[in-house]
Design a protein that fits this description.
The structure is a homodimer. By secondary structure, chain A is α+β, with helices and mostly antiparallel strands. The first copy, chain A, is built from six helices and five strands; from the N terminus they run ααααββααβββ. Helix content of chain A is 36%, strand content 15%. In chain A, a hairpin with a 4-residue loop joins strand 1 and strand 2. Chain B binds a DNA duplex through helix 3 and helix 4.
Chain lengths: 165, 165
DNA sequence: CCCCTGAGTTCACTATTTGAACTTACCCTG
DNA sequence: CAGGGTAAGTTCAAATAGTGAACTCAGGGG
């Protein structure tokens, strides 16, 4: 199965992956959320080859996540803005960044400095259940269809490395 | 920049991407959360070439997201269990699936059937601020360092496709 | 005129993915 | 005990994608 066939899969995760399941694509989105709009800004923030940046931007535009808006003719210039669909990815990036800060500690790490503009604070994204309102703890989610739930290594001796916070 | 250099970047998103920023890796995790533990289960659920599955499983084990546990010698057999670090990725997969269900409607789509085992209901993952407790709306997050916030296409005329729910 | 910026494209190389077949080792059935 | 099945991978050639550097337009400035 080639990955461009993923977009016609019934599973929502597979279709999401067909849009943003690529290393550079996620980083392009990060730059977008941090305020980048122009080709050169994306190139500078990413350190990826220009051709790669161009192809990822084009893909995100095609997927309706970014909007390419010409802002000058003649030297034809465009910038790239998040659409509603793109902005809706913010929870994904936030939870991903939070996971990384929590579980991938690193000498030169620097937190992402996310601030909630309503209350003005730095925050952690808390994920809760839309039905009961309780915060969802790892292991409290069950995936239907198949009967079994995720099997985990909780009672394993000496799990290598899996022990940060 | 080659992507294996990403793991030593200061940005948490970049380091997260170095671990799970790959199409098949995310789908391997999906299978894990759905209960897969054995090599053949991953192969069957993914439709990816066996070599790719093997390499992604090895990568996730190396990253401490999965634990490879031998369960038989002689025909040497192992299975793959989520570690704490792996289970902590659940919010990422949930918000990703939710984004896809909301914004990538598709004829053959079928919802992921996530159920909160505490209250027993199907739910949507709601992301809120750990400081004020309010649900975070798109556009209410500001990324420090750079002054500007994400620029978006909210007041653009005729945004192509970016208008689903 | 010469160099600079912005937004890409082109090109030669390298690395990774794919799909199919092969391996190893045990179990089961007839 | 030959033949088939299962599990967990490896191996290999061919196709595909990513990399880094250089190049292209179209102006602008000095």
């Amino acid at each position: 199965m080639r990955w461009n066939e993923l977009e016609s899969e019934p599973c929502p995760v597979a279709r999401a992956v067909s849009v943003i399941g690529d290393r550079w694509t996620v980083l392009v989105l990060r730059e977008s959320f941090k305020g980048a709009t122009r080709f050169e800004e994306f190139c500078a923030g990413l350190g990826a080859p220009r051709a790669t940046v161009a192809s990822r931007l084009a893909g995100l535009v095609e997927a309706g996540v970014l909007l390419r808006r010409p802002y000058a003719d003649h030297p034809p210039r465009s910038d790239y803005l998040l659409t509603d669909r793109g902005r809706a990815l913010q929870p994904v990036i936030m939870t991903l960044a939070h996971w990384s800060e929590t579980w991938l500690a690193h000498p030169t790490a620097q937190a992402f400095d996310r601030r909630h503009t309503i209350c003005g604070h730095r925050f952690k994204p808390v994920v809760s259940c839309s039905k009961c309102g309780e915060e969802i703890q790892p292991g409290e989610v069950e995936y239907g269809t198949r009967q079994k739930t995720a099997k985990t290594a909780s009672l394993m001796p000496g799990s290598p490395d899996g022990d940060h916070p």
